[in-house]
């Protein structure tokens, strides 16, 4: 809902810091498209072709995993659920976990086969376990993509094999990686697993950055002749996590080199700054017909911004509150916005919500506030 706002300005501890170190221009890398995102804030630090449609190859399997993780979270599947291996899964082209036709394999094994080995057979088996058929599962993938705000992506299968309308953007894939890391930390651990053995066959994780940089703990590789070599990587250093997405390089080494260049640039020159904790009162809002007439408001999730190193102390928080709000309200109702400002320019924002449900007041409160509201 849109409404005019009354503005209120709050200053963080604001003695200007010493001159911040300069930030050089972002690096240029040999890839078709790339992006670097701060996990905490979701802000893009740098990118090229960030909203361009590209083939995802096996980066697709990150969305396949996300949908399976949702099924686990809802209880539709369990890690020990036995999944029958259909002929469609068994005959899958490309990378394989080497599943046997007609056998039953636990979901946990299939997930490792898909995540560590990038097995197309494991991916299809999981898709069928969740949705019955792979085409139906693709519809589910697109529903999750819409929910996550992946406006430039469309999936046709669970594996990443080329399709006429199977495409993503690197920004969308960074959003997806951020969602997986944030929502499913217990399952994310498989993305740092170095190898996996099934049917007597051991295959190594194709993400070579796991060996090259100890701060890297995921997430997914991809490659087809038309997509080139692709890599989503995530690393955590000194409490800050970054996500890089690189597509369309010409070799495994080049996708790793490009990812490291991006990660090193982000960690060297930027920082995540937590400005406000979730659920803490930031202001009291006039709420008509509510008991007491006012309600505490704040942000529903921790508010982070990504800034050049040394600039965090100069950020201002500007609250814009709705001028006329009526009870009852829930904690999901939007009642304003908070913007983080640096040198007069916005560097981040979040919606404001009541920190607790706001019930209706008594009869006389409701009557009085109805009359008062006519004149305000």
Task: Please sum up the structure shown.
This protein is α+β, with helices and mostly antiparallel strands. It has helices at residues 61-74, 87-90, 107-115, 120-131, 134-147, 170-183, 185-188, 209-212, 252-269, 363-374, and strands at 6-11, 33-38, 44-48, 82-84, 104-106, 195-198, 201-204, 216-224, 228-237, 240-249, 270-276, 283-288, 294-298, 303-308, 316-321, 325-326, 336-342, 345-354. It contains ten helices and 18 strands.
* Rounded mean pLDDT score: 93
Shape: globular
Main beta sheet: 7 strands, mixed
Which runs of at least 5 residues are low in confidence (pLDDT < 50)? 1-18
Strand content: 25-35%
Distance between the termini: 20 Å
SSE arrangement, N to C:
EEEHEHEHHHHHEEHEEEHEEEEEEEEH
Number of strands: 18
Number of helices: 10
Strand order in the largest sheet:
1-15-17-18-13-12-16
**Assembly of the depicted chains:** single chain
Helix content: 25-40%
Cα-based radius of gyration, to the nearest Å? 24 Å
* Structural classification: alpha+beta
């Amino acid at each position: 809902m849109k409404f005019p706002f009354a503005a209120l300005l709050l200053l963080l501890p604001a003695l200007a810091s010493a001159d911040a170190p300069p930030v050089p221009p972002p690096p240029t890398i040999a890839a078709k498209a790339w992006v670097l995102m701060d996990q905490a804030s979701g802000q893009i630090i740098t990118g090229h072709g960030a909203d361009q449609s590209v083939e995802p190859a096996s980066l697709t399997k990150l969305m396949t995993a996300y949908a399976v993780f949702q099924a686990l979270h809802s209880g539709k599947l369990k890690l020990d659920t036995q999944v029958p291996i259909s002929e469609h899964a068994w005959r899958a082209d490309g990378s394989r976990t080497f599943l046997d036709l007609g056998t039953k394999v636990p979901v946990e094994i299939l997930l490792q086969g898909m995540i560590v080995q990038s097995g197309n057979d494991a991916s299809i088996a999981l898709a069928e376990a969740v949705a019955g058929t792979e085409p139906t599962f693709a519809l589910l993938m697109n529903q999750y993509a819409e929910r996550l705000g992946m406006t430039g992506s469309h999936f046709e299968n669970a594996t990443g094999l080329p399709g006429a309308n199977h495409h993503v953007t690197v920004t969308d894939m960074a959003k997806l990686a951020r969602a997986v890391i944030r929502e499913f930390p217990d399952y994310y651990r498989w993305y740092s697993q170095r190898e996996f053995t099934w049917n007597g066959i051991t295959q190594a994780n194709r993400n070579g950055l796991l060996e090259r940089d100890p701060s890297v703990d995921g997430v997914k590789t991809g490659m087809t002749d038309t997509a080139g070599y692709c890599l989503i990587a995530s690393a955590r250093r000194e409490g800050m996590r970054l996500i890089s997405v690189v597509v369309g390089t010409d070799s495994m080494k080049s996708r790793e080199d490009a990812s490291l260049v991006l990660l090193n640039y982000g960690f060297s020159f930027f920082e995540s700054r937590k400005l406000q904790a979730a659920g803490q009162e930031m202001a009291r809002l006039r709420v008509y017909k509510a008991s007491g007439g006012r309600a505490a408001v704040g942000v529903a999730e921790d508010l982070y911004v990504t800034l050049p190193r040394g600039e965090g102390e100069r950020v201002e928080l500007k609250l814009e509150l709705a001028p006329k709000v009526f009870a009852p309200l829930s904690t999901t109702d939007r009642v304003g916005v908070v913007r983080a400002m640096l040198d007069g320019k916005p560097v981040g924002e979040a919606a404001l919500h009541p920190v607790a449900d706001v019930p209706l007041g008594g009869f006389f409160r409701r009557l009085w506030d109805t009359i008062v509201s006519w004149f305000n």
